[in-house]
Amino acid sequence: MKALISNDDGITASGILAAKKAVENLCDTYVIAPETQQSGIGHALTLYEPLRVNEYTLKDGSLGYGVSGTPTDAVTLGLFEILEEHPDIMISGINTGYNLGQAELTTSGTLGAAIEAASFGIPTIAISLEVARDDIKFENGEIEIDFDFAGKMLNKLAKIVLKKGLPEGIDLLNVNIPANPINEEFEVVKLGKRMYIPNIEERLDPRGKSYYWIGGEPYDFDEPGTDGYELRRGQKTTITPLKIDLTNDMDSLKKWLK
Ligand SMILES: [Mn+2]
């Protein structure tokens, strides 16, 4: 069995090594990830720049492939250039910081990599860890983060996926690990509305012209049964089944067009 492991925090991030460590007793692991921090890049594909693949020695001494592009670039090169055959499972993460809700699902690079792999029928897990401190969300492997519980949950889930694949009609799973878990169960939840309310900072450049910096304040999760509510308020490990097909109600559209 083979696992392709990627992320959006970059190949040097500690979370990708945690993901590798979590599943290496189950299968062969191949770490193929962007060289640089790509959080927020979504499902972007590089079409007008050359892409390089550089070999990296990961902190555990093993070989990894760093791609000079996006998470989707890394997965595409992984599947169609670097690996000889498609893996039995793809894991995106472990992301530093949660990935919740409908709104940012397609801006998340963690989900971007996952959606790309899942679109080729590979059973895929996107996994993210809630972190208490805002300043470590874009860490590059230099800050010590405790991925032990997240790794344990990932191992549990990957074992099931490798044995049974995913249920019919489900393309990928979005998993979020709380900072202070109350149990070792998976709570099946639907997507909430969003993770953040945009918080835009306007600054002045040295020539007096405005520039903007997009940030966010956590959305106030208020709907029980959603990922944001159960993770943030309940400190449960949430798991959401996703499908890539975004097609909505065709009949109501046909009626509307008449
Ligand atoms: Mn990230």
Q: Your description of this structure?
A:
This protein is α/β, with parallel strands linked by helices. The protein has one domain (2-193, 222-257): Survival protein SurE-like phosphatase/nucleotidase (Stationary-phase Survival Protein Sure Homolog, Chain: A, 3-Layer(aba) Sandwich). The chain is 25% helix and 27% strand. The protein has helices spanning 14-23, 71-82, 109-118, 148-164, 227-233, 250-257, and strands at residues 2-6, 28-34, 53-57, 63-67, 89-96, 124-129, 172-177, 186-188, 196-204, 210-218, 237-242. The strands form 2 sheets. Strands 3-4-2-1-5-6-7-11-8 form a 9-stranded mixed sheet, with helices on both faces. It has a two-stranded antiparallel ribbon with strand order 9-10. Helix 1 (14-23) crosses helix 4 and helix 2 runs parallel beside helix 3 (109-118). The protein is globular and about 45 Å long. The termini are far apart. The relative contact order is 0.16. The model has no long low-confidence stretch (mean pLDDT 96). The structure holds manganese (II) ion. The site of manganese (II) ion (MN) has 6 residues, from helix 3.
